[in-house]
Amino acid sequence: RKEVEQDPGPFNVPEGATVAFNCTYSNSASQSFFWYRQDCRKEPKLLMSVYSSGNEDGRFTAQLNRASQYISLLIRDSKLSDSATYLCVVKISSGSARQLTFGSGTQLTVLP
Amino acid sequence: DGGITQSPKYLFRKEGQNVTLSCEQNLNHDAMYWYRQDPGQGLRLIYYSQIVNDFQKGDIAEGYSVSREKKESFPLTVTSAQKNPTAFYLCASSRGEVGETQYFGPGTRLLVL
C-alpha cells in the first residue's frame, strides 16, 4: 500500500462548481500535512497547510481527520484558473530526519 | 527577487554519459532536495541535504550523485548507472529542518537520446 494515496481523477467540473478531493495516508505517526498545486509541466507550489482544526483560505478549505487518516481539500466556486493537479503531501517524523511524502496527485479541469 | 533556479530547462543525454543538473537558491535556506517526477506519478526523493558538506540518500538514490559545497548550490549528477533517467527533475529548498515547507525550482526535463 502506498504511504499517501489520492484519486488520480481526472475531475472535470463546470465553472462555479464545488469539488472535493480526499487523500489517505497510512502512517499514523504522520505529523504535518499540506496541499500543493502543480500546473502542467511546472513545479509544485504550496497551496495551503492543513491544520488539525481545519483551515480556510478564500475558496479553499482543508480538513484533517486523524482517526480515519485522511485529509481533504474543498474548492468552492471553481474558476478556470483552478485547473491543475493537486498534490497531497505528508510529513512523517520518526526521531530521525524524514522527508515529505508526496501523493501522485489529483487532476482537476474546470470547464467553461 | 529570492528564489530557486534550475538549469538547463531541457537536457539531452546520450547513452553512457554523465550529466549534471544545476540548482541554485538565494533564499538562505539550509535544506535542499532533489526529486524525480515521472508521468502520472508523485515526486520521489533522490537526495537531500540539511547543511553544507552533508547529504543523505532518499528513496531512489541509485545512479545519482550530489554535492553540497556551498549553501546556495546543490547540483545533481545523473550517472550512466541510472538506466532510466528520462524524467522531470525538481530541486527544492526549505528554511529549517527537513520536512518544512518546500519551495521548488522550475525543473529540468531530462531526455535520453
Give the secondary structure arrangement, pairings included:
The complex is a heterodimer of chains A (112) and B (113).
Chain A: E1 4-6, E2 11-14, E3 19-25, E4 30-38, E5 44-50, E6 55-57, E7 60-65, E8 70-75, E9 84-92, E10 100-102, E11 106-111
Parallel strand pairs in A: 2-11
Antiparallel strand pairs in A: 1-3, 3-8, 4-5, 4-9, 6-7, 7-8, 9-10, 9-11
Chain B: E1 4-7, E2 10-13, E3 19-25, E4 31-37, E5 43-51, E6 54-57, E7 64-66, E8 76-78, E9 87-94, E10 103-104, E11 108-112
Parallel strand pairs in B: 2-11
Antiparallel strand pairs in B: 1-3, 3-8, 4-5, 4-9, 5-6, 7-8, 9-10, 9-11
What is the typical, i.e. mean, pLDDT of chain A?
A: 90
- How much of the residues of chain A is beta strand, in percent? over 45%
Q: State the order of secondary-structure elements of chain A, H for helix, E for strand.
A: EEEEEEEEEEE
As residue ranges, the low-confidence spans of chain A are none
Q: Report the structural category of chain A.
A: mainly beta
Total strands of chain A: the figure is 11
Task: Describe the overall structure.
The complex is a heterodimer of chains A (112) and B (113). Chain A has strands spanning 4-6, 11-14, 19-25, 30-38, 44-50, 55-57, 60-65, 70-75, 84-92, 100-102, 106-111. With 112 residues, chain A is an all-beta fold. In chain A, the strands form two sheets. In chain A, strands 2, 4, 5, 9, 10 and 11 form a six-stranded mixed sheet that branches. Chain A has a five-stranded antiparallel sheet with strand order 1-3-8-7-6, with no helix packed on it. In chain A, 34% of the residues are buried. Chain B is 0% helix and 50% strand. In chain B, the strands form two sheets. In chain B, strands 2, 4, 5, 6, 9, 10 and 11 form a seven-stranded mixed sheet that branches. Chain B has a four-stranded antiparallel sheet with strand order 1-3-8-7, with no helix packed on it. Chain B has 113 residues and is mostly beta strands. At the A-B interface, strand 5 of A face strand 5 and strand 10 of B.
